[in-house]
Design goal:
Layout (H helix, E strand, L loop, with lengths): L3 E8 L9 H7 L5 E2 L2 E8 L5 H13 L3 E7 L6 E4 L1 E3 L2 E2 L11 E3 L8 E3 L4 H10 L4 E4 L6 H15 L6 E7 L3 H4 L10 H17 L13
Parallel strand pairs: 1-3, 1-4, 4-11, 5-10
Antiparallel strand pairs: 2-3, 5-11, 6-9, 7-8
Helix pairs in contact: 1-6, 2-4, 3-6
Bound molecules: pyroglutamic acid.
């Protein structure tokens, strides 16, 4: 089989943070071979609109087999494999260009939501087996991460790239960030990198997701 391509994206820092763990983690995997695939890691701006445009261009030029967009979720305790992207922007803070959309549709006429096409339950199982704390998350929020996740799934649907699997993973702060936010949980960079390697390998090797409880009561 020919070499497959996996696109990993991370974000530039936002909201007064000097670094973004998503970029620190994905860039460590740029050029790495995982199974029969090669990883391409790229940074996205934390800017509504521009982030989707940048990702669209990458999907068009690289024609990846798997796309996993990664973002920082300060305060989360585990690697969070997102289940669903919703068609709305509602920003609690301004993005890096100063925009703060409220209740704005991402894609006019697009569906209310898209589900991840990654094997999210198998990824959580494999992460836990590898010693990495992980969960299925039922919401990616309503800021730039959900925006990019929705944009990715909308682009794949529009391009009829049904063979391309796409999804989003939120990750906690790095320890040096948590040290500036007393009480906030964190995961070490090496743990995040190892976790993303697992997420990629499982996405490449799992055609049909497993049926395992990953829900929440509320
Ligand atoms: N996290 C933000 C946007 C960029 C990032 O890394 C979010 O969760 O929307």
């Amino acid at each position: 089989m020919s070499t497959r391509t996996v696109l990993l994206t991370g974000f530039e820092p936002f909201e007064q943070e000097p670094i973004n763990p998503s970029w620190e983690a994905v860039r460590a995997l740029d050029g790495e071979r995982i199974g029969d695939a090669v990883v391409v890691a790229r940074q996205l701006p934390c800017v509504f609109g521009k982030a989707i445009d940048a990702l669209d261009a990458l999907v068009a030029s690289l024609k990846p087999d798997v796309v996993i967009a990664v973002g920082q979720a300060g305060g989360r305790t585990e690697m969070s494999i997102e289940r669903v992207a919703i068609n709305v922007d509602d920003a609690r803070v301004a993005d890096n260009a100063g925009a703060q959309p409220i209740d704005t549709t991402i894609a006019q006429g697009g569906p209310a939501a898209y589900f991840s096409t990654l094997p999210i339950k198998a990824i959580v199982r494999d992460l836990r087996a590898a010693g990495v704390p992980a969960m299925v998350s039922q919401t990616a929020g309503t800021f730039v991460c959900n925006h990019v996740f929705y944009g990715l799934m909308h682009t794949l649907a529009q391009r009829q790239a049904t063979a391309t699997r796409g999804g989003f993973v939120h990750i906690p702060y790095l320890p040096e960030q948590a040290a500036r936010h007393p009480g906030a949980p964190s995961l070490a960079l090496d743990t995040l990198i190892a976790g993303l390697r697992v997420a990629v390998a499982t996405s490449l090797s799992t055609d049909t997701d497993i049926r395992e409880q990953g829900g929440q009561l509320h």
